[in-house]
């Protein structure tokens, strides 16, 4: 029988001596009462412990700097999993009736006054430890009973399904193993090139041409790594329905030509015979996502077509639909694989020497993005060695006359002073150096509190703030800067690794003017700074 986990007692006190004395006193009885003692120096640290562990009782100091005991208790009890944890407040002051009422409203079950009397403390915690032990044992027994009941109900069905499920699981496991192996291969290739190029730059006697070539390799392979990460994230978002489309009237014919030109400019089509018959065809779509669809279909054709092969791209409008097809003369698709080519973790036969690489998730992403646009996509092939054709259909709209954008203001202006708040030392140093090279005066800070102090002292024009900061996160930095009359005017751009709609909403609610997802391309960052500085206070966070 599995042993019941020991109950845990959390002691929260900002005074190191008091915390040490109280935890030592509790540990004298820990072996006898069979519990563990966990210590926290602040309300924030206590919340992190509550996220990690379940506690039989919490001994919480009332008077703490920053988040006091009442605020800490309220935060603990707002979380469903920790809402029932009993809290005993510890205070050096005699609490009046209003303080007691406030404490009980925040979830307290009792008060202890310092200096704590050991016998009283022992009597109180013994009750809660015993109660937690019995509750855990009851929950364990309930889980066992529930599991036995479920096992009995499902046993007949499970016996009938077992063989088929085992086969399905083996197929899925094999596909995932292949995917992980491919992912490791695809990550190691650009990482190896980046490492070699970086080592070359540091060698003595290397000439300027070699250094320039090495830098281009680092940039190119870094972009490749970024695309791999983007594919993984986009697939996850698409499968969970968290991709939001920015739909506008779009000429798919022009988009196809632009995408093909991009592939030609990078030299990816030079070993192939590529033809295109593209007609103007308008849809209501997200240009970035539809370009991603076309790029993935071209990537797939290149991946499975040997050099010297033929690739054809066609577009047309028929009966209210835009039809786009990508045909290749490559390895083709077997009849048993054809129904599964758009499934996650499914790839055709791959070889170790294929030049294009890839993760095998592009077609899954294609299908989901096309469906989000109200269309559909399917694959055709006569079999191995006969090539393949991928065709997508999208609802079309009437032709839209394009309006020319106003010319960009290229006049020279003084560069705004920038504050960079980033806890990653290497990332902070590189971004500061990069901005400095473009003429921006840059100051930087390694955490939220330092960032607030630097902002108040230096009063920069704009602050680039990482969200995942130690101490206080970027959301709190933004809120405090907006609340401070000395810093409320500073433009704020959030830098984060999260780009879902909910992440953007939280960023804007905290007071940021703009939201950028890491890694941030330098051109995009400079444009974002210019755009942010050009906004008026009334429209900055519209």
Automatic annotation (TrEMBL):
One Gene Ontology molecular-function label: phosphorelay sensor kinase activity
Lyase as UniProt keyword: no
Chief subcellular location: membrane
Location within or outside the cell: Cell inner membrane
Domain of life: Bacteria
Recorded topology in the membrane: Multi-pass membrane protein
Keywords, comma-separated and alphabetical: Coiled coil, Kinase, Phosphoprotein, Transferase
UniProt name for this protein: histidine kinase
